[in-house]
Amino acid sequence: MRVTQSVVKTLREAPAGAELPSHIFLLRGGYVKQLASGLYSIMPFGKRILQKIEVVIREEMNRIDGQEVELPLSQPAELWQESGRYTAVGSELLRFKDRTEHPMVLAMTHEEAVTDMARHYLSSYKQLPFMVYQFQLKFRDEPRSRGGLVRVREFTMKDGYSFHRTDEDLDAYYQRVYTAYERIFQRVGIRPVVVKSDTGIMGGKLAHEFMLETGHGEDYLILARDGSYAANQEIAEFHRETVPESPLPVEKVATPGYKTIEDVSGFLSVDAKKTMKVVLYETEHAKRKTLVMVALRGDLEAGEIKIRNYLKVPWLLPAQDDFIRSFGIVPGYASPVGIAERSDLLILSDLSIAEGNNFVAGANEEGFHLRHVNFRRDFQTPHCGDFAKAVSGHKSPDGKAELHAVRGIEIGNIFKLGTKFSESMNCAYLDESGQHKIPIMGCYGIGVGRLMAAVVENSHDDFGPIWPEEITPFHVHLVAIGKEPEVVEACEKLQAEWDAAGFEVLFDDRDERPGVKFKDADLWGVPVRVAVGKKTLAEGCVEWKLRKDKEHTVVPLSSTSDRLKSHYRK
RNA sequence: CGGGACUUAGCUCAGCCUGGUAGAGCAUCUGCUUUGGGAGCAGAGGGCCGCAUGUUCGAAUCAUGUAGUCCCGACCA
User: Fold this and answer.
1) Which of residues 253-292 of A touch strand B (CB under 7 A)?
2) Are A251-385 and A474-567 in the same CATH fold?
3) Does the nearest atom of strand B lie within 7 Å of A198's Cβ?
4) CB–CB of A302/A390 below 8 Å?
5) Which nucleotide minimizes the distance between its C1' and the CA of A111?
6) Residue ranges of the domains in chain A?
7) Where are the beta strands (DSSP E) in A303-344?
8) Distance CA A528 to C1' B44 in A
9) What backbone phi and psi angles, to 5 degrees, belong to A74?
10) Using one digit for the tens of pLDDT, what is the confidence trace for A488-521?
């Protein structure tokens, strides 16, 4: 490919708003062009990379017996009503009507479509297990797209779905996918951190996310430094250290105007760890507006995902003061002491409170707190569990390792779905004894464009991306220095020779100064750069430079094909 | 959905405070010169100053509204 014939334009400066290295370089290198918020046009160089990423993923999916399919992007709403997601998912699901006023959606994932396919195909246990996968657009009407290609509204995803007779069979296959994912990420040069992740309110038993650790990530991961623990912060567990004390009598103290944990602990000279924080949410539980009171140790923060998962509710909002007061609870001095659970008032107690003693808690009276509040003696609730957020400095659940929080980009996920979709959508088969059985499903996703962005985050310098050999848009970047006939002729001969040897050659034949070409070479990130200039050519030599190295070497022109072969191990 | 900012040439931005009809650098086109890390000179093309309404003799500039974009947070099967 000649640069003069390529549909590519580089930018000297980053467009306003681009902050992540991947965003800046993908725009500056002419790989992608933003069309609107969260919508990107992929230009030829970007498309070449995406296609190669798809090749890598396809090879690894086929290796674990996946079969490629393609499922529609636009789907009738009925399909989503069957699974229950039509109402369970919010505005992220784009709903529209077709020409005949039929309600439709743009798929955000393809569980419904694949389950529909499976229920028509599947009739006998003899057909199980199987896995199908596709590369297909997803549309998610993100409330906030950001970070260039990291979080977009429309994107191509590799999504795979497996069907099994037993949990054991799913477990075994899940492990194979896990291994396939490790191979995929290794081939694009990424060493992911694998964390346990939230399975959401749609059900499912176990899920892992493959994360690229990067300061620019949008997820927070909780990791043990010794590798013994890794989880998404949303669900990360931790060990609560408590020193048992004997309960002391409750004592009411005046704390005029002191409402926050910081104020109260300062005023009463007690450690925040000896205070009780009460966080109040409102939600819809059992079909009515419900107040959720969560009691935590003062130094902890509420873990909203944990609370939502415990209550099996899709959302929590900070409770309004009026609503709080209607239960006799006083904002700023709130406490579960003296408050009884009702059908529309749930009291949750974090383990830190249940296992500790003698907390300073609100008195539900303006200007007063209580000393020495103890769980069970002073208040009770059956809802006792892990409702706090793990942060840096906490101990891992076994109490042995220190945890720390890092940011990461999710580049893949695997999920034991269970029978959520197969059951609601009547996907069944007959077993040996003629009994109807529901297949157990797993699903497995990788965002292709996001992975390209993640590769740049993972592999770049100050001047541009450094593409891994497996997914580079070209194998070798041939740069003509000057336009002397002998230089042009030598370049054309080299291009033809390398083409014939099966290498993808990018030939910069532009009438540009060397500096311009070298800057662009850095933005295009091709692993091998060969520069042909008059001086070295007179000695039968060219310049050989690897993108990852700073310096070039002068090598015989005749050796370049062999060098390429050995570089690419062909 | 909250909080903040921005919107002027293909890109990055100045001009706005103090109203008088549009600027720079880069990019593009022409010519010359130059040729090893985004050269120089001369010339040319390119603008509903996001949109709407208002104030004014006159609005890129002031006011109100609205849309788009970006950042932080919420949300994220």
Assistant:
1) none
2) no
3) yes
4) no
5) B77
6) 10-73+107-236+406-456, 251-385, 474-567
7) 317-318
8) 40
9) -95, 135
10) 999 999 999 999 999 999 999 999 999 999 999 9
